[in-house]
Amino acid sequence: MNFETLFHANFSLLDDAVTDWATLVRNLGELKKDAETNLHQAASKANWAGMNQQVSKEFIGKTAGEFADAHTQASTIHQVLSDTLGELRGYHRQLTTAVENGRKRSLSVFPSGDAFMVTSSVPPQTAAAGEPDRTADVTALRDEIQGILDKATESDNSAGTVLKALADQSELGFSDARYKDRDSAAKAIADAQAMAKILAKDPHDVSNTELNTLNTTLAKYKGDALFTERFTTEVGAKELLTFYAGVADPYPGTYDPRRSEQAKQLQKNLGNVVGQATLSDSEKMRAWKSDMIALGQGQLGIDDASNPTGFVVMSNLMRFGDYDDQFLNDYGDKLLAYDKKVNGEGINLWVNNANQSDLNYWGYKNDRGRDPVTGFLEALGHNPGASSEFFASPGGAGATVNAGSEVNEHLSYLAKERVWASDTTLEGKHDYVAGRDSLGHALEAATTGFPYDTTADVIKTSGEHRTRATAAVMEQVAYLYGSADGPKMLHSQPELADSLGKMAGAYIDDIDYHLSGVGDYEKDDATFPEKYAGRANFTQQGAINFLSVLGQDENSHRAVTAAQHLYMLSALDAYPPSSDTTIEHAHDALTTGAQARGILDNSRVQQAETTYKEESDEANKSLGRSGDWIKLGVGTTVGVGIGAIPLPGSTAAAVVIAPVAADTVGEAVNTFIGHQIDKGLEDEEKDPAEKSQLTSSEFYAKGETQLGNAYHTYVSGSPEATQKANVQNWNADIKNAYLGVGSHENDYRGRTPYKD
Asked: For residue 229, how many C-alpha atoms fall within 13 Å in the half-sphere facing its CB?
């Protein structure tokens, strides 16, 4: 900012710009509100079909989001311009005041090119006659004016930097970067550059104090669009990898617990920051993403962490953070293509005695982080959109899966073909394969639309996340694990069992819908209405096969049974005994729920008897553990159209997501569901021995009793419902549905028990 520009500044154009942006912000605020209320919400409630159902709703949702982003970006730009205008006006006043005060003291200020000069107007002869030397006054005024110009320059430049950074965030559309003022945005950029300088150092020369500063700053700015983009692009792709590998190498010669803790936090903080950065569409960030993928299969050429490949380091960082969907898919395509070349029996590039690149600090005992596919799948588990795309149906959403060729190539490879190796330490779980657990996490995200570790509170307030795309992934999962190879796949991949149960639980309404028909005809749309556009198509036999496989494992049986019970209870609440129509729906919900429960329980009994053979006590203990699933009900929360059931024995965030039949949450829902859960727990407490051991007959009796409790609660207090139930013999309907379908070889439909 030169002297003449600021001294003669005309702020009218900038005034007009600030006014125009203020008007634009107000107008966009109204458009944002209209787009969400009158466009997006209306489209979500519309009962469209065909191409409108598949494409239009998603497009309208994205369009509404663009209005929101446009409002955010306009608000930030207005704030930056307003702040800058105010500051420049202030500096203009300071400058004119300084010049005027100098004039009063016979000091003159003149422009000189881009600079200025200060002179004394006192004649030399006057000074020679005894007047004091004016050199100090001239110097003081010059320094005062230069200070004002420096501050004005900084204000002007920082505004330009921020505005350019905001504009660069998105090549097309708008950025959602939000800042309350210009200074906070400018500070974010400055702090990013300061932190990037730490990563420019040799990681072995960086002190623990510097690492602490780095971690603290990264954690502070993990969601800041300008900081994360500037930091990540300033550092560079290879420099980021080599720095983390150098800091995190667990074998540096001397062990320092303080540095180890800093490395652990650095893994998380870098993952979060880089993830946010990938959401930027700036030219530099696009180049960074391309560089990172290109570095994947090559070694970094360093002495740390067994000279790892780019894939190994980046996959450990991406265990944390929200990443750009396209980046994750491009990265995953290259990773799996390379993995197919180097991974196999006896030739595993990743997990071997020579590889000591233990770069994962989270859950280290059971997952050293040497297999990059594991970390990548964890990233998908936290990024549902990317995961749904990565495992998308090759036939497109809505295509029925009835052949192996119709299964996504990535899913088929990871579920059926890849050789998985245990990456545990000597202190970890023997033969546990973290990568298969991470595959389950990725598929949970792909099918439910939620990150796999989403909390119950988030689920309760978020509503339905399933779409035609998530259902297309679920259809493939059900096809694979409900196939003739399904029992073998489930039993050879025990780490996936809980995830498979949770996935089935999330689609229990669609499963019940397919069970409700006669074959694949006359399915009960009225009792089991479509809760989202493009519901999953399992077919009746596919649903039976899938449930019969899931029932074989204690963990998958537990999760899907809990979801089935919650959904059935919610249906009884949604269809109160107030009319012939609702009573009929309740009957259908009870009988179909009993059928699903019967498939699961029958399969559980048959598998326990097959697994333990003559060891009846062990089989009974296994059934006792399965019968303990009612504990899942404790802490259940119900939101609009969705419920969250805490999964015992895991972290507080591990929940089974289950659809509920009622569209709104009322006192009746919580009262009815809560009563049934409490009743189940009371029954548990009456016979503690039953918790640890159940014969098959006791196991079935317990299941029938729980169904009976729900039935009894529904008809109690309603003479009309009681009479209708007696006339129609609901007792027989429910019992036959529960006991008449299962996985018995030759006698029942479904898959037979797995035999070693």
From this structure: 25
Residue 595 pLDDT > 90: yes
Per the rule left: phi > 0, alpha: psi between -120 and 50, beta: everything else, 363 is left
Tokens representing 227 are 């900081």
Instruction: List the beta bridge partners of residue 116.
Output: 111
How far is C-alpha 392 from the geometric centre of its chain's CA atoms?
17
Distance CA 332, CA 412 (A): 14
* Distance, CA of 484 to CA of 489 (rounded, Å): 9
Do the strands 115-120 and 107-112 form a parallel or antiparallel pair, or are they unpaired? Answer: antiparallel
With tokens 């230069």, the residue in question is 146
Highest mean pLDDT among 19-28, 158-167, 236-245: 236-245
DSSP 8-state class, residue 111: E
533 close to 54: Cβ distance less than 8 angstroms: yes
Residue with tokens 């954690």: 219
Angle between helices 182-199 and 135-168 (to 10 degrees): 80
- Of the CA atoms within 13 Å of residue 549, those in its CB half-sphere come to 29
- Output DSSP code: residue 255: -
CB-count exposure of residue 190 (10 Å: 0-12, 13-18, 19+): middle
Spell out the long-range contacts of 46-52 with Cβ–Cβ below 8 A and sequence spacing 24 or more: 48/533
Contacts 24+ apart (CB under 8 A), 43-51: 48/533
- By the 8 A CB rule, do 456 and 473 touch? no
Would you tell me the crossing angle of helices 554-574 and 696-715 to the nearest 10 degrees? 20
CA distance linking residue 561 with residue 567, whole number of Å: 10
User: In terms of Cα–Cα distance, which of 496, 414, 412 is closest to 452?
Assistant: 496
d(CA 574, CA 1): 69
The b-or-e profile of 197-232 (16+ CB within 10 A means b, else e) is ebbeeebeebeeeebeebbebbeebbebbbbbbbbb
For the four alpha carbons of 86, 92, 96 and 99, in that order, the dihedral sign comes to positive
Question: Token pair 């052949």 is at which residue?
Answer: 403
Amino acid identity, residue 224?
D
521 secondary structure, DSSP code: B
Tell me the H-state helices in 129-200: 135-168, 182-199
Residue 85: CB atoms within 10 Å? 17
How many C-beta atoms lie closer than 10 Å to residue 321's C-beta? Answer: 23
The answer to whether the beta carbons of residues 737 and 592 sit under 8 Å apart is yes
- Terminal CA-CA length for the chain: 80
Distance, in Å, from the CA atom of 409 to the CA atom of 412, rounded to the nearest integer, reads 5
DSSP three-state, residue 655: strand
Q: What SS3 state is found at 415?
A: helix
CB atoms within 10 A of CB 535: 19
- Specify the DSSP class assigned to residue 55: I
CA distance 485 to 706: 32
For 471, phi then psi, to 5°, come to -65, -35
For residue 68, the model assigns a pLDDT of: 62
Q: Which residues pair with 110 in a beta bridge?
A: 117
Confidence of residue 169 (pLDDT cuts 50, 70, 90): low
What is the tens place of the pLDDT at every residue in 335-345?
A: 999 999 998 77
Give the residue with greater pLDDT, 21 vs 708: 708
Phi, psi of 281 (to 5 degrees): -110, 25
C-alpha–C-alpha distance, residues 36 and 705, integer Å: 47
d(CA 526, CA 507): 17
Q: What are the backbone dihedrals phi and psi of residue 604, each rounded to the nearest 5 degrees, phi first?
A: -65, -45
Nearest one of 596, 378, 616, 609 to 501, comparing CA atoms: 596
**207 — pLDDT class (breaks 50, 70, 90):** very high
Let me know how long the chain is. 756
